[in-house]
Amino acid sequence: MAKQNETAGTVRVRLVKGLRGVQARHRLSVKALGLNKTNDVRELKDSPQVRGLINTVYYLVQVEE
């Protein structure tokens, strides 16, 4: 039951597209999410700041909830 509470406040983000030809600002957003290479996955705290970064690069990432 504690495991469910831990994952309730997190979001899994996967980088599904490469960064070639992407705006520099969007590259920085991906880096801020902790994603480096294609298919990298990070489990991040679900907060408005993280959601804003995800919304900025929605076309490069996949959210796995």
Provide a descriptive summary of the structure in words:
The protein is α+β, with helices and mostly antiparallel strands and 65 residues long. The chain has one domain: 2-Layer Sandwich (Ribosomal Protein L30, Chain: A), CATH 3.30.1390. 38% of the residues lie in helices and 23% in strands. The protein contains 3 helices and 3 strands; from the N terminus they run αβαβαβ. The chain has helices at residues 2-8, 24-32, 48-56, and strands spanning 10-15, 41-45, 61-64. A 3-stranded antiparallel beta sheet has the order 2-1-3. The longest helix is centred in the middle third of the chain and has 9 residues, at 24-32. The mean pLDDT is 91.
A few lines on this structure:
The protein has 65 residues and is an alpha+beta fold. 38% of the residues lie in helices and 23% in strands. The two termini are 18 Å apart.
